[in-house]
Design brief:
The chain is of the alpha+beta class and about 325 residues long. The protein contains nine helices and twelve strands. The structure holds ligand MTE. The site of ligand MTE has 16 residues, from loops.
Length: about 325
């Protein structure tokens, strides 16, 4: 069912302290009846896609609510190499990526291969909000209120075959709109590729995000659809996805190809295994500065060990890092 959603043009992505807005929005959602299925507003659309509101059920994971990273930090300190390698490059340049129209093709070892347009993706799934810790291998971390739906909901719709063991994801590769793919040719073999084992992908914590802080995803955070794998390092959380394939063989990810000695396929947050060039025992919770480093100890599986450790029973996580 398609719904037209209100928008609030007073909410701009440049807001510095977003939490009151965010809480206020939740209140509005509640008074609007707490709708579950969602679509991006069309008739009242404001100028920028990222300021459009999503309607979603304010569901689980609320225990982290008081630790939210400010919107400004979530959207201005990013990794999205397609737009450059500096942390502020994505916020400056990702707007050049056209995200409408957008579709995601799902194929490989599935019974129902096909292509979903973004609208179908937004109307076909019940959106919910989940607050997840997010940890980058470079030792910074955030707590983000994402809006989206479990990856398993998407995969089930395409019916993975029993021989399927892995899932491969690909980002859009459009040189004309992605300045980083022009200047860094040879560094990453574009398109950006990530992968999960199928059972990891079906785990209820693995999430397809289409928004954050109640709004559609800003370009720099991987608009219009990205993956969030809360128990793994951020590089697993591939942005701006256009293709998903269920495979029998383990996909070769961009980071493994680039630096096999530094980045393994599994990428589970493991404070006991240092990155060859820096410690993984601590993290800087954003926002952080020289005067206020906000340094905290890193937890195994990024704090989600109770939920996910079973997936790796019997594996040597020092070898399969
Ligand atoms: N996805 C694509 N397509 N390109 C990238 O360079 N960087 C990854 C991940 N997804 C990246 C990507 C890394 S290293 C991190 S830490 C996260 O995105 C950062 O997500 P954020 O900018 O939303 O915090």
């Amino acid at each position: 069912m398609r719904k037209t959603i209100y928008t609030d043009p007073s909410i701009q992505s440049s807001e510095i302290t977003p939490e009151p807005v965010f809480l206020n929005r939740r209140h509005l959602m509640k008074s609007a009846g707490g709708l579950a299925s969602a679509a991006i507003a069309s008739s009242m659309a404001p100028a920028k896609a990222s300021t459009e509101a999503l309607v979603y059920a304010p569901a689980g994971d609320r225990s982290l609510e008081d630790q939210l990273t400010p919107f400004k930090a979530v959207t201005s300190y990013n990794n999205f190499y397609e737009f450059g390698t500096d942390k502020d490059d994505p916020a400056r340049y990702a707007e050049s990526m056209t995200i409408d129209p957008w579709s995601v093709k799902v194929g490989g070892l599935v019974n129902q291969p096909g292509q979903l347009h973004l609208e179908d993706l937004l109307t076909g799934f019940d959106l919910e909000e989940r607050i997840y810790r997010f940890r980058c291998v470079e030792a910074w971390s955030m707590v983000v209120p994402w809006v989206g739906f479990p990856l398993s909901d998407l995969l089930r719709r395409f019916e993975p075959k029993s021989e399927g063991r892995f899932v491969e994801f690909k980002t859009l590769y459009r040189r004309s709109e992605m300045r980083g793919t022009r200047s860094f040719t040879g560094v990453i073999d574009w398109p950006y590729v990530e992968g999960l084992r199928l059972d990891e992908a079906m785990h209820p914590l693995a999430f397809i995000a289409v928004g954050l802080y109640g709004k559609t995803l800003p370009h720099q955070n991987g608009a219009p659809v990205r993956l969030v794998v809360p128990w793994k390092y951020g590089f697993k959380s591939i942005k701006s996805i256009v293709e998903i394939n269920v495979t029998e063989a383990q996909p070769r990810t961009s980071w493994q190809t680039l630096q096999p000695a530094e980045y393994g396929f599994y990428a589970n947050v493991n404070p006991d295994v240092d990155h060859p060039r820096w410690s993984q025992g601590f993290e800087r919770k954003l926002p952080s500065s020289v005067f206020r480093p906000n340094r905290v100890r890193t937890l195994p599986f990024n704090g989600y060990a109770d939920q996910v450790a079973d997936l790796y029973a019997g594996m040597d996580l020092r070898r399969d890092y």
